[in-house]
Each structure stands twice: as structure tokens, then as C-alpha cells.
Design brief:
447 residues; alpha/beta; Gyrase A, domain 2; Four Helix Bundle (Hemerythrin (Met), subunit A); Rossmann fold; 7-stranded mixed sheet; 6-stranded mixed sheet; 13 strands; binds guanosine-5'-diphosphate
Amino acid sequence: MMEENIAAIATPAGKGGVAIIRISGKSPLALAEKMFTPVGRVKVTDFEPYRMYPGRIDGGTFEDYGLCVYFKGPQSYTGEDIVEFQCHGGESIARGILKQTFRLGAKPAGKGEFTKRAFLNGKLSLASCEGVADMINGESEAEVKAGYLLYSEKLTNKVRGLQDELKTLLAGIDVSVDYPEEDIEEQHIAELKVSLEELVAKIEQITATYAVGKKIKSGVTVAICGKPNTGKSSLLNRLLGYDKAIVSNVAGTTRDAVEGVLEIEGQRFNLYDTAGVRESGDFIENIGIERAENIIRSADVAVFVVDMAQGGMDEEDKRVLEMVQDKPLITVVNKVDLSEGIALDGADVYTSALTGEGMEKLKQLLYQRGFGARTEDAAFLIEQRHFDALERAKASLQKAIHACAVEPLDLIGIDVKEGWDALGEITGETATEAIITEIFEKFCVGK
Ligand code: GDP
């Protein structure tokens, strides 16, 4: 599909080494010819694809010396012809050159329009485009890695496999409906049911990865709990390496949950310091306690802090422990600098927020409890949209399985087709205009 030329600055606004202006459409090379003067005798219209040519770039009221490269469609990001200029990385330089492309007829590209064209031209599936956005917007290395797997069509290939199987089943149903034979139909339905059950199991295998994928995307939520003055805020500060939480030796001063973000082995952890959980007549402190309870409820991992300088666990410690013991839990015995030689049953790590002792071990434990043993290169479901579509596909197939006992083949076929449609929302085949628009809204201009 050859569309009008669109242009945008592909690099972020600001000063830098280079900036890139990208033009995609039916005739970017013809446009480039009018604003690029290559060094030597070569003509722009004779440019070999995928090769950098040095020369002068026209910025309207000024010139810059830079590079030009031509990507020949369909072997290009968008599937169309693309030209890119690399100029010096100044905002006014890039903007001037972009304006010149507009003067020569290019239209300003909308958010994610290059990637959208790649999707519409069949270069990328919809899920792959979302992988690109995940990589660019990714706030941790783990998210970038997961986004890259999505971008490289790992999920799409799996989903297409499922769709193919469903298509085969649908074809079989069509044949049986067109040429009905009583005794064969019964056997056909029995076989169909088995196939559908296998497909549901395969979908469940994929949706099961969302538990980890969600953590990759949003971070592992960690609640640091313990009675007042055990050193929660101090430990949080130590982990983060700066003074974020308020540290005080007056019991009950950490009134609010304080969030800090920590990266362990490329993975984001959101740390919450909870107010001391205890009976109190103080209204503000009670609000803090309620919030603490909410945080504990939604946490993936709880860090339970005990102050060993007091000699052991008391009733108040035990009350906190009760609140968190059904979670993946790390029991931290803090203030070892004041309590050397004292041990506690069930302790996972001995720390001192004062000296930093035990911090590396604590980080390792956070990672282990957050993820358990996981295979590094597996593809994870990281988008809620994909999870929802798979759940809907599963529900349709389960309806079909149920229908196998009571309905004729053609009605079962309707549910199977619904399952196929739901899967198509991931790859993009059945995604509505509204879904597509929403996805590309997440992009920046120039991608
Ligand atoms: P929180 O109420 O549990 O958040 O406790 P804080 O972090 O506010 O600490 C309470 C007091 O204990 C403060 O005076 C800290 O300086 C002190 N403290 C915290 N951790 C340690 C530690 O590992 N060793 C020593 N000696 N003091 C600590």
C-alpha cells in the first residue's frame, strides 16, 4: 500500500550528538532529491538502499552537513519506502529540516503512525507493535526484555498456532454440517471435544505466565512491615541508597506508606514502608494503619522486620507476623550491630540498616521470593489486553465444550468461531478500529 509521505523527528527533543528525521510513504526519495545534495557525483535517485550517503541537508533558511539513507519497501520498518536524514542533534536543526520536508509536501506523522503503517502493511502483528511500545516505555531492563520478546512475535506465533488449530476444527465442522451422517456426527463431536479441551489447556499455559509478566511490567510490590521503631524506614533508605522515608526514634512516626523504586537484576521492585501496625488511639496513625493493611493485602512479597536489640519477638511482633504470613515472606532481623550473637527461629537474613550488613542478601531474597525459579528467556504475557483476549477465547471454547453434550455441530461451531475471533484481537486480525487507535495513542510521534 503506497500512502502519502509522512515525516517526523524520530529522536527525542533536546540537544544531542545526532537527530534523525524520518520520511515514509510513496516517494520519500523524490522528496529527498529536492533537499539533499550528496558529496561526489552520485544522484539521490540512484541511491543504493541501506547505504549511508554524506551530503548537505537543506533546512530552509540554513544548511547542515549530515547523512542520508534510503530503505526500500517492503524491506523497511513501515513496509513503504523510507528516507532518513541524520543531522547534528540540535532542536532547531532537526525542526528546520522537518519543516523543509513539509514544504516539499510531506504530512506531519501522528503518534506511532510509522508503526501503525507497519501493522497495516503486514510487517508487524498488533501484539508486536505493543512490544515496541513496551520496550520504549519500559522502566526496567526486564520490561525491555519482555517487550522485545513480544516485538519479535513470540506471542503472535503461539496465538497463530492456536488459531490454525481452531480453523482446522471449524473446517471439519463445516464439512459435517454440509454432509450430515448421524453415527459419524456423534464420533466427530467426541473428537472435537477432546481437541477443544487440549486447546483450553494450551491457552491456560499462556495465561499462567501473566502472573510473572504483570510483575515484569508493573514491578514487584513489596510491603515492609513490622512494629514501630524496628528500623523499616532505615532499611528502605539503605536499600534505595537515599533518604526518602522519615527516620525517627519516636515510635509510630512513619505515618504514611512511602514508595521507593529499586531495580534488582534488571527487575523493578516497588517498596512500601508501612506505618507501625498496632492498636492506637491516634486518628492519623489509625489511617496510616488502614493504608498499611491495604498495602499488605496487595503486596507480592512481605518483608517482616524484627528489632533484635529487644531480645526476641514479643506479642506485637507476632500480631504483625500473623497479618503477613500467608504471603511470600522474608523475615529480617534488624539492628544486628546492637545484638550480635542473638539468633531468631525462622530468620531469613540478619541486617543492620546502620552498617549495611545483610543488604545484598536481602536483595537476593527479594528477587527469589518475587519470582521464584524462572526461565530467563521464556516469553511472558505482559499486556492486560492480551490476557483478557485469551480469557475470552478460553470462555468461548469452554462454552463449546459444554455445547458438545447438548447442541448440534453448527451451534458448537459458533462458539469455536468466537474463540478464534478473540485470539485474532491479539494478532490484530479481528481488532476493531477503536482498539487499534488506543494502542497507537501510547506511542510517541516519530515511531
Ligand atoms: P521504623 O519505625 O520501623 O520505620 O524505624 P526507623 O527506621 O524510624 O528506626 C527507628 C530507630 O532505630 C531510629 O533511631 C534508627 O536510627 C534506628 N535504627 C534503625 N535500624 C538500625 C540498625 O540496624 N542499627 C541501629 N543501631 N539502629 C537502627
